[in-house]
């Protein structure tokens, strides 16, 4: 007997520093030489060796059944070439699973990057192009020792689809 999997749609809103505050920061260009302040990325990378790299991701649609978090570091993501992209998030918490009520999706323009707070649940990046190159700042072993995933399909028979207008 097969189990039916329901799909919940998440409407992607344009990211702003205010609406993304529960999940991290949005960082835009600033004047060279500006003093460090609260608008700059507040990083937590002291638990290992930082890794800054460009990752090429290929189109995989906008549906997801799993969400991930890292509890030892912040993570910064941004697209190259000015391409818009999507990310689903849920705020950090003490539970082994994300809060379904607090999940949100954002459309992120190619002229900024996001910094995910320590423990922020995230699924993505998603986009419509064949591929997009992203820069990524995390720890060198994040995906080995600090990669915690929750499976919505397994525990809730549910997946999500990010929709943008």
Keywords:
single chain; 165 residues; mainly beta; 5-stranded antiparallel β-sheet; 13 strands
Task: Describe the protein's architecture and organization.
The chain has helices at 142-145, 152-156, and strands at 6-14, 24-28, 50-58, 63-64, 66-69, 75-79, 85-90, 104-108, 112-116, 121-126, 131-139, 148-151, 158-163. By secondary structure, it is mainly beta. The strands form 3 sheets. It has a 6-stranded mixed sheet. Strands 2-9-6-11-3 form a 5-stranded antiparallel sheet, with no helix packed on it. The chain starts with 5 loop residues before the first strand and ends with a strand.
Layout of helices and strands, plus pairs?
Blueprint: E1 6-14, E2 24-28, E3 50-58, E4 63-64, E5 66-69, E6 75-79, E7 85-90, E8 104-108, E9 112-116, E10 121-126, E11 131-139, H1 142-145, E12 148-151, H2 152-156, E13 158-163
Summarize the structure.
The protein has 165 residues and is mainly β.
The largest sheet has its strands arranged as: 4-13-1-8-7-10
Can you name the CATH architecture? Sandwich
| Succession of helices and strands | EEEEEEEEEEEHEHE
Fraction in beta strands: over 45%
The tally of structural domains comes to 1
Mean pLDDT across the residues is 95
- Label the overall shape: globular
Give the biggest sheet.
6 strands, mixed
Q: Can you tell me the CATH superfamily?
A: Ureidoglycolate hydrolase
CATH topology: Jelly Rolls
SS field, number of helical segments: 2
Which value, in Å, is the CA radius of gyration?
16 Å
The CATH class name reads: Mainly Beta
Question: Span between N and C termini?
Answer: 37 Å
Number of strands: 13
Low-confidence stretches: none
What structural class do the secondary elements suggest? Answer: mainly beta
Task: Specify the helix fraction band.
Answer: under 10%
